[in-house]
Design brief:
alpha+beta, Butyryl-CoA Dehydrogenase, subunit A, domain 3, four-stranded antiparallel beta sheet, 16% strand, binds flavin-adenine dinucleotide
C-alpha cells in the first residue's frame, strides 16, 4: 500500500469523528505532508485536483484543509519563492482574507501592516486550518496599498462552531505579530491565488458529488418499495440521470480550469461546482430518504457541506460578477 492509499484509508476512518468533535487531525496532516500534498506545485494543478477529489470522497474536511493550505504556498510560488518556505518540512498554513466586517468587499479590509515595526494588526474570521496552522498568510493594508504578510504565529485563535466542514479548523484569528515575509500588491496576489484555488475547491465538490451519486445509485438498486426496486421508478431514474450529467459536466470543467486557470474559467468552475454539489447531495438524500438523515452518514455530512460552496472562496454572486466582466 503506498502513502496516498494509507492517507485515504485513515482519512475515511477519522471523518466522522472529526465532524462530531469539530477537530482537525494532526495525524492526517502529517500523512498529507508525507504524500507531498502540503506544497503542491502551482504548475501541476490538474494532478493536485485529482488527489483532492479522492480525499473528498472519504473526508471532505481534510480535503478542504489541504486546499486551504495550498493557498499560502501558491502565493509564495507565484511571487517567486519557488523553493518554498522554511526548508524541506512543509508546515500547515492558512490564508486569512475575510474580516468580521468585510468578506466579498476585500478592498475594505481593516487589518493593517505597519512598515515601521513590520507588524500585522487586526482580526480575520472564517479562516480554515487556523486551529493547527503554523504559517499564517494575512492580507493587510499599508501606506503603499496592500500586502500579503507571512507570519509564523498569531495572537489568538478562536475556533468557530460551524455547521459545515467541521474538523477543518475554521476559526477567527487575531493578529498582533511580526511578518517574516511581506509581499507587495497583496490584493492582486490574493485574486491570482484564488484563480488557482477555485478549481481545487471545485474538485472537493466534484468528489462529494461523485461519492453521493454512487451511494444513491447503489441504494436505489437495493431498496424496494411497492414490489419494485426504487431505481425502476422513472421519477428517481431521471433525477439520478440528471445528476450524472451534471457531475460529468463538472468533471470536464474542473479538468479544463485546473489545466490553465484564469479568472473566468475558475469562476465558472466554482459557480457550477456549487450548483452541482447542492443538487446532487439533495437528490442523494432524497433517494436514501429517512436513513440518510442519520449522523455519521457520508451523505448527511455532504448535505451540510454543500451550502459552503456557494460561500467559500468567493460567493456565487461574486463568481457571477467575475463572469460578467466578459461582456
Ligand atoms: C467553508 C468555508 C471556509 C472558508 N475559509 C476561509 C479561509 O480560509 N480564509 C478566508 O479568508 N475566508 C474563508 N471563508 C470566508 C469566505 O471567503 C467568505 O464567507 C466569503 O468571501 C463571503 O464573505 P462574507 O461571508 O463576509 O459575506 P458578504 O461579503 O458580507 O456577503 C453577504 C451577501 O452579500 C452578497 N454580496 C456582496 N457583495 C455583492 C455584490 N457586489 N453583488 C451581489 N451580491 C453581493 C454576497 O454574495 C452574500 O450573499 C470561508 C468560508 C466558508 C464557508
Amino acid at each position: 500500500m503506498d502513502e496516498f492509499e494509507k492517507l485515504l484509508l485513515k482519512a475515511e476512518k477519522l471523518a466522522n469523528e472529526m465532524d462530531e468533535k469539530n477537530e482537525m487531525s494532526l495525524e492526517l496532516i502529517k500523512l498529507a505532508e508525507k504524500c507531498d500534498l502540503l506544497n503542491p506545485d502551482v504548475k501541476n494543478l490538474n494532478d493536485f485536483c485529482e488527489k483532492v477529489k479522492e480525499i473528498a470522497k472519504r473526508n471532505q474536511s481534510l480535503a478542504l484543509s489541504i486546499v486551504a493550505n495550498s493557498m499560502a504556498y501558491f502565493a509564495l510560488q507565484l511571487s517567486g519563492y519557488q523553493t518554498g518556505y522554511q526548508g524541506n518540512e512543509k508546515k500547515l498554513s492558512c490564508f486569512a482574507l475575510t474580516e468580521p466586517r468585510s468578506g466579498s468587499d476585500i478592498k475594505n479590509l481593516k487589518t493593517t501592516f505597519s512598515e515601521k515595526v513590520e507588524k500585522v494588526i487586526g482580526t480575520k474570521t472564517l479562516v480554515t486550518n487556523a486551529e493547527l496552522a503554523e504559517i499564517f498568510a494575512v492580507l493587510a493594508k499599508c501606506e503603499s496599498g496592500s500586502v500579503l504578510c507571512i507570519c509564523s504565529d498569531c495572537h489568538e485563535v478562536r475556533k468557530l462552531n460551524v455547521s459545515c466542514f467541521r474538523g477543518s479548523g475554521i476559526s477567527a484569528v487575531k493578529f498582533d505579530n511580526k511578518a517574516e515575509i511581506v509581499i507587495k500588491d497583496g490584493i492582486k496576489l490574493a485574486m491570482e491565488v484564488l484563480n488557482y484555488s477555485r478549481p481545487a475547491f471545485s474538485a472537493i465538490a466534484l468528489g462529494i458529488s461523485e461519492k453521493c451519486l454512487e451511494i444513491a445509485i447503489n441504494y436505489a438498486k437495493r431498496r424496494k418499495a411497492f414490489g419494485k426496486r426504487i431505481s425502476d421508478f422513472q421519477a428517481l431514474k431521471f433525477s439520478l440521470a440528471d445528476c450524472m450529467a451534471d457531475v460529468y459536466s463538472l468533471k470536464c470543467l474542473v479538468e479544463k480550469a485546473s489545466y490553465k486557470p484564469d479568472a473566468f474559467k475558475s469562476a465558472v468552475c466554482k459557480l457550477v461546482a456549487a450548483k452541482t454539489v447542492k443538487k446532487v447531495t439533495d437528490t442523494a438524500l432524497q433517494v436514501i430518504a429517512g436513513h440518510g438523515l442519520m449522523r455519521g452518514c457520508y451523505v448527511e455530512r455532504a448535505y451540510r457541506d454543500a451550502k459552503a460552496f456557494e460561500i467559500g472562496e468567493g460567493t456565487s454572486e461574486v463568481m457571477k460578477l467575475i463572469i460578467s466582466r466578459e461582456f
